[in-house]
Amino acid sequence: MEYRKIKETLKFTIQSTDPDSNDLNYFINWGDGTYENWIGPYKSGEIVEVTHSWSKMGKYEINAKAA
Questions:
Q1: Per-residue model confidence as pLDDT tens digits over 25-47
Q2: Between β-strands 24-29 and 48-52, what pairing exists: parallel, antiparallel or unpaired?
C-alpha cells in the first residue's frame, strides 16, 4: 500500500474500446462522494487522463463506467 499526502493530485488513465468504434463517455466515481459526470466524448481506444485529489486520508475504491 502506498500512502499519499492529502490534497495531492494524482493522475489516472482510462482506455476503452467500443466494438463498433463509437465514441465513448466516462462516468468516474472517486469513492469519496465525488464523481466526474459523463466526460467525453472520446474516440474508441483513446487514452484519457484524469486527475483527482482526496481531502481525507483513507482507502478509496475508484469505479469508471464507459458508455
A1: 999 999 999 999 999 999 999 99
A2: unpaired
